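Q: I'm writing up a methods section and want to include an example of the input and output format. Could you take the sequence below and give the corresponding predicted structure tokens, formatted cleanly so I can copy it straight into the document?
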Amino acid sequence: MTHAGAAYPAAPSILGRAAELSRLEALLGAVDGTGPQVLVLIGEPGAGKTTLVDWTAEHARARGLRTLRVRGSEGEAGLGLSGVHQLLHPLLPGDGLPAQQRETLDRAFGTAAAQGEVTLDQLSLCVSALALLGDAAARQPLLLLVDDAQWLDLGSVDVLAFLARRLEGKPVVMLFAAREEAVPARFDRDFPQVTVGPLSRAAAGLLLDAQPNPPRGRTRTQILQQAAGNPLALIELPRALARGWTATGQDGGAALPLTARLENLFAADLPGLPEPTREALLLVAAAGTAQLADLLRAAPSLDVVQALAPAERVGLVRVSDGQVLLRHPLVRSAVCQAASFSERRHAHLALASALAGDPDRRAWHLAAAATGQEAEVADALAESAERARARGAYATAAAALERAAELTPAPELRARRLLMAAQAAMFAGHPQWVGEISGRVDDLTENPRLRAEASLLGGWALGVTLRHEEALTLLLGVAEATTASAPDLALGTLSTAATSVYNSGAPFYRAELQRISDLIGEADDPAALAWAQAVIDPLHQRARMMGLLKSGLAAMSQDSLGNLTAVGGAAWILDETEEAVRILRRAMDVIRRAGSAGTNATVTQALALALFESGSWTAAQSTADEAFWMATEAGADNVTVGACILQATLRALQGEHAAARTQAMEAVHGVDLRRSLSLQVRHRHAMGMAAFAAGDHAEAYEQLRATFTRDFRPAPVHYHASVYYLGDLAAAAVRAGRTDDARTVVDAVEHGLESDRSPRLAAVLHRSAALLSDAGDAEGHFRAALADSAVDCWPFEKALTQLDFGEWLRRRRRSAEARPHLSAALECFERLDARPWTDRAAAELRAAGVTAATATTASAASELTAQERQIAELAAQGLTNRDIAARLYLSPRTVGYHLHKIFPKLGIHARAQIRDALWEDPPAVPRDDGGSANTRLTSA
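A: Here is the clean output for your methods example:
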């Protein structure tokens, strides 16, 4: 990494960038939380991104912000966490943090980390880095400047993305600059972007006129045409002309593509420089770092400082404070491109010799100097990968193992290293990379086990990226091929395939899953068996399914992510929702301890769905948000879409129907939902509930009806998910006048089910039947839907039934009987902030002779952000700032900063007032007589 900018202050005026400067001003203004706190600056090489970054640094200084800065370096792209270390180095060791967080930072960046002696929890590192920033920001607002991000190591990108998504509530802003063709995946679409495009013709002309020797006439026209508005080209081309270069190119041929032409421009000074200078410049370019000490050790016979003087005079480099700063990263590309391979190899070998005490960097330089397959170098890179993996730097480990495999002479070992690279890439959260690496294994080995494992990884990657059919072709083929020779591997592969089978929803794949499962002999994996069988047919043979789940629970290892995920998924699909929440939360704990960023998006989404169904909507919202960002960072499209749909559903149920529709539509834009029936019906449900909340019952019915086929005997579009929407379908049908059609659907579905149903499914079917039945049968169905106490596990669904039953009773002049049901429904809706249903329940209570003071009016507490609410609730319980900080992985100073913002929002002045401000009006407790135990409900 290099600190950039101090030696090259921004120009006093920047031509043609008014719009960009306005956005940068807004970013700095957002340090108080009034706007987006992250901005991604993209543009082609030479577009002026660094100039804008320097301008931002200067203006931040004038506003009183402290600036932390890092600039990416190709030479350190393979060194895990080197970029984030440069960024945070001025704040270390973090004396104001709790001891555990200081220890985590020391393990990541201290002496032990350099020697590869520690195992690092990636999530703990991210949380500790966030706390470190929060602690510093509590003293002085911060600007985080990240320049040339395309050359950051992937581990640092992961940490920066984690920080960027959690700046809300902190006086911190981030400017992230990268080449437009190489924006890191974590930042390429999820933050506001500013594209630094070509200058206008007028601005380009002004920039040309500002050069020492401004061109005139035809030459000026040629430069303007070939520069195409690129500021760096507009500056460099006149310098080239001053040295006798012509606009047609030195070889008289056609103009090169812009990027290549600019890189060649940077090498234009090289032929005229002394040989020692070119040698020193090549060492600088090959090293990829700004440390002068590295260069001195690599060239002991060369006076490096003296040799660099001519390059400094022509503006290629600046030597200052023990660092060698290139004028622009493209200088490095140009220097390397101008050198022969022999010269570059000599430079890398010299650096490798000088870095004997740094085995990781030494290994990468040896790899760069390799002329072919070299076992010793491959071993060194593999050892470096193991140290990176132990630190939790899985992306770095994957890159090192992939390069090690390329250098490995033995095909079998090369295949094993590629497999290890693919596994590390999976844990790093890069499914597309996993697919690319695992796809190369088959050409290297005939070992059926290795080839099966490669296909398993490739199938996992395809499934995560919504390519379910391709994933299942691989996975089911592997499973069938190994049923006899490796039954445990076959069953494990079926367990992985089951996720894509469920998401696809296609009957063919369920049948194949069952057929291959029947071929497997003895396999000791009850968890995988429970998940695979539950996916095949979750709505029939419930006693058998519950037996498999019980066996899976009994054999489940509390520390096995595979076991926990499989059993948690089986519990969820079999409507053991509370058990699913418990197990999936345990799985998340295991993931966080292991730093397995690549696998947690799917688990997190599963947990979000279970939390939603269990009535923990606040937790479901935050978990879905976490799943979305994890999936976006990982390229896990299935989760990205699914998490957005769940968020849209929650928004619809809480009354934000327009926003819910927009989010649901945007979530599936460009997605072929015919290949993912689970997402298709969940999307329809979200759209239907948004329409229902808006009062458009006809549209609600059409959306919900689309979760079932239009056949003579309608069937669920998705064999499992669709069935749970029958109650909402019936409710919309009553209001849209479509009861006959809805009754056809409900009757057909019920006809295909066995009598042994989960309590939840039984309640859904009874509610549907009650809404669509004649008056004589409805009451029995309503009471049956509410009779089993197990339905308390699904409070929103129960409250809907209570509301429907209360309305039915009141319309038959049985108001006294209706009140307890309506009151209980209202209490649930208020707790969940389900505003459309809160209003409806309150209106029904009024009609039943009860005045309901609902929570529909905005309270002061509603102004709090999610994190502020969490802190306020803990403070209301009597916890100190230090206690809250330890629980939320923050610094006490950050907690104090949030409380300082919370007090005015709540209109209070003392900590003792928080509880009353948060919970001004406790929920009503209905009495047996239909009245209330407090003043919340009063007889009219």
